[in-house]
Design brief:
Elements (H helix, E strand, L loop, with lengths): L4 E5 L6 H12 L2 E4 L1 H13 L7 H10 L2 E5 L8 E5 L2 E2 L7 H10 L3 H15 L4 E5 L2 H5 L5 E6 L2 H14 L6 H17 L12 E4 L5 H12 L2
Parallel strand pairs: 1-6, 1-7, 2-6, 7-8
Antiparallel strand pairs: 3-4, 4-5
Helix pairs in contact: 1-9, 2-4, 3-5, 7-8
The structure holds 2'-deoxycytidine-5'-monophosphate.
């Protein structure tokens, strides 16, 4: 039987969203990228001039501001819509200042508790591919299929670099690599829900596999 709750975890830029979205589309499941919720809280804090180092204030914002994640309403490259107080903030959550601060915000226990609660409610409905860092370990430990998608920091930085260059942007590989490493360090050493594979996760290393090969492997795992 095809698993109904599929968790895909792994470090930044390991290809989780690409694989997860493709899988969800093929199965007719909801694709839910949980990272957008931490990004939304970070954006709200920056927007309101709340110091991201003020754990209490950021946690209150997370508790008081509903964040809606809905299926994509536009085909402009987004995987889903992120709505806060009636405003579509999907692309704001990708801004560099959000990138620079989201690891700090997502390390707060109170923020994680609130986001996990909301994510769990959606995940438990089933027919979902949920992507993040702690889905298989904390949010939905009962998931039917858990995948941990890994790749070296160098490979992930190279992919980010190519992505920016393809869009015509300026990019510095060494700078991107340093940022990838710094986010890995924060995500995997934080006290609450650090990035790590669940004991029953299938680990796939995408350094050695193309996107199509990773997808084929994931598809096989879904078929049991
Ligand atoms: O996947 P992403 O780059 O959009 O994630 C943004 C940040 O949120 C990143 O610092 C890790 C964190 N995150 C998390 O702690 N737990 C999740 N389930 C998803 C993301």
């Amino acid at each position: 039987m095809t698993p109904t709750i599929i968790a895909i975890d792994g470090p930044a830029a390991s290809g989780k969203s690409t694989i997860g979205k493709r899988l969800a589309d093929e199965l007719g499941y909801l694709f839910f990228d949980t990272g957008v919720m931490y990004r939304a809280v970070t954006w709200i804090a920056l927007q309101r001039g709340v110091d991201v180092r003020d754990e209490g204030a950021v946690t209150r914002l997370a508790q008081e501001t509903p964040i809606d994640v809905a299926p994509a309403s536009q085909s402009d490259g987004r995987a889903c819509d992120v709505i806060v107080e009636g405003r579509d903030i999907t692309w704001e959550t990708r801004r560099p200042e959000v990138d620079a601060n989201v690891s700090i915000v997502s390390a707060y226990a109170g923020v994680r508790r609130e986001m996990s609660r909301q994510q769990r409610r959606i995940g438990q409905r089933g027919r979902v591919v949920m992507v993040g860092r702690d889905i298989g370990t904390v949010v939905l430990p009962e998931a039917d299929l858990k995948i941990y998608l890994d790749a070296s920091a160098e490979e992930r930085a190279r992919r980010r670099f190519d992505e920016i260059r393809t869009r015509g942007g300026e990019a510095d590989y060494e700078e991107i690599l340093a940022k990838v490493r710094e986010r890995d360090r924060i995500d995997s050493t934080r006290a609450v829900a650090p990035l790590r594979p669940a004991a029953d996760a299938v680990i796939l290393d995408s350094d050695k596999l193309s996107a199509d090969e990773v997808f084929a492997r994931v598809r096989e795992l879904c078929n049991g």
